[in-house]
Amino acid sequence: MMTTPPLGHRPPVLDMSNVTKTFNGDVVALRDMNLGVNSGDFISLLGPSGCGKSTALRLIAGLSTPSAGRITWAGGQSENDLGVVFQEPTLMPWATVAQNVWLPFRLKGQSYASVKDEILDALRLVGLEKFLEAYPRELSGGMKMRVSIARAMVTKPRLILMDEPFAALDEITRFRLNDDLLRLKAKIGCTVIFVTHSVFESVFLSDRIVIMAARPGRVIREVTVDAPYPRDEAFRTSADYAALCRQASEALHEAMGEHA
């Protein structure tokens, strides 16, 4: 189990400085976004539809480039810095579970045999070590998402980006995967940026909730969740959790009323 230093005592991982992203010359998806990400953070980006949450993730992932401003990695960026979990599991249907988790290594030219132990470890972490040879069509929605999470974590990246990964799942499965995600984070000590529309999910998972306003997308407030980890069902039903949800909800309503 990894120990994460308290907020304010964590080394930097990434910095977004005055980042603006414009599409088609006049659609401003983000304007002057500033965000510091530190090692061990669990940050949720919370905001209304169209506020640029997914755009911010794509910029960090290098799938798009800023129109202005800069994104800087502490110590420079390497090929193992990032893992990404999309809203859909995006598994290859013709490949087994193990072959899907192998993909990040395969793209770097590493053979399956050379990394099979890492693949098994990742699947063991998400409770799917008995499904190595199964195909995606044989898995439930929650199991497919576990494979996607294992694939993102298998290279032990510095930062994992998660774009509403549990949005399409039923509430019971979503709660279970929230629990599992915090357990996995504690085991490997990763840093997570998590996009969600759910106030309740953001409070349960995060130590920092970054509230974004739309038109144009920007950060307007940050809520610190100082409840200790590990978090469980007792936290979900506590007065502290309810109070933090109210605080985050009020900030979200403020964001939805913000205009440029």
Throw out a few tags for this protein.
260 residues, alpha/beta, six-stranded mixed β-sheet, three-stranded antiparallel β-sheet, 8 helices
Structure commentary:
- The chain is α/β, with parallel strands linked by helices and 260 residues long.
- Helix content is 36%, strand content 24%.
- It is built from 8 helices and 9 strands.
- The protein has helices at 53-61, 97-107, 112-125, 141-153, 171-188, 199-205, 233-236, 239-256; strands at residues 12-23, 27-38, 42-46, 68-73, 82-85, 159-163, 191-196, 208-213, 218-224.
- The strands form 2 sheets. A 6-stranded mixed sheet has the order 5-6-7-3-8-9, with helices on both faces.
- α2 runs parallel beside α4 (141-153) and α3 (112-125) crosses α4 (141-153).
SSE layout and pairings?
Blueprint: E1 12-23, E2 27-38, E3 42-46, H1 53-61, E4 68-73, E5 82-85, H2 97-107, H3 112-125, H4 141-153, E6 159-163, H5 171-188, E7 191-196, H6 199-205, E8 208-213, E9 218-224, H7 233-236, H8 239-256
Parallel strand pairs: 3-7, 3-8, 5-6, 6-7
Antiparallel strand pairs: 1-2, 1-4, 8-9
Biggest sheet statistics: 6 strands, mixed
In which order are the strands of the major sheet placed? 5-6-7-3-8-9
What is the C-alpha radius of gyration, as a whole number of Å? 18 Å
What sort of overall outline do the alpha carbons produce when their principal axes are compared?
globular
Number of helices: 8
Q: How far apart are the first and last residues' alpha carbons, in Å?
A: 44 Å
Number of strand segments:
9
